[in-house]
User: Fold this.
Amino acid sequence: MLRVVAVLLGVGALLWLAYVSRNVLTWLAVGAFLAVAINPLVNLFQRRLRIPRAGSILVVYLLGTAAAAGLALLFVPPLISAAEGLTDTVPGYVETVRDSRLIQRLDEEYDFTTRLESEVTTALSDVAGPSTAVQLAQRVINGIVALLSIAVICFLLSLYGPRSRAWALDQVQGERSEQVTRVLDRVYRVITGYVVGVLLVALLGALATYAFLTILGVPFAPLLAAWVFLTSLVPLIGATLGAIPYIVVSFFESWPLGVASIAFVLIYQQFENQVIQPVVHRQTVQLNPLWIILAVLIGAQVLGIVGVLVAIPVAGIAQVLLQEWWSTRRRRRRGGEDDPDMVVVIE
Assistant:
């Protein structure tokens, strides 16, 4: 009884510790995922450049930083010019709204303008209040700490990953060693395949958007296509989020362009969700589209945006573990005989 009580207390303490440090565990999971994702590039630079593994990881980090800086240079100047142009045109929009007969009628009957000004003033005072500034500063600091922590965790896991893998394989012998090796290789292929698949889907969406906007003559086509690429890295909902800016810009140009942009989004979304994503993820992660959707929804409920990003590879890893467990169980039932159909793919 004392042993059982001690085990229960130990399990409870571990669960409490996991709950308290859930943010750190999330950083660890994201860092591990990124370490596996960048491993092909690290190995490539290590072989081609003949530099130590730490140097290869730093090269990948420098390339990622350069890509982020390039995107910032691509986004920031057009946003600044657009904000300046919007500031100059807002008074004209306000005068147009005030001259509208509908607004004048609402103002006469319900004092619409005064109420609107009061609500806007209250909202701006809440946004510009000291508590909002403190919360914003806290979020920025927490985001920086999380980003740096994930970068350090990813670096260390990528640096010592091969040694940890070799040590883990040394702890098991015989058939168990072969099984562990097979599981680790399949998990590695799932994560790298997912990264390649997401990048491919995002690239196709960005190219299609750029071609559409260029044909219609919508301004800022490269910028808007780059935004579509970034948001498309989020499965299922990313393309919709990426479509909002160029729909707004199209409506500012003319309402036919806005309607055409909405039609393009609807058509391409169906094509991407029904054709591109299932084909790509089926070839890379080997998951059924139904399991992909369920995994993304569950991940969003559990971890928010982080859960959406890691839901598909986690589901792929769970499928690998389930397949290995099922194949081991069938082999034991058959007395250890080889079964050519022992891997059961979840369809």
Summary: Residues 22-171 form one domain. The two ends are 45 Å apart (CA to CA). The CA atoms of residues 202 and 232 lie 5 Å apart.
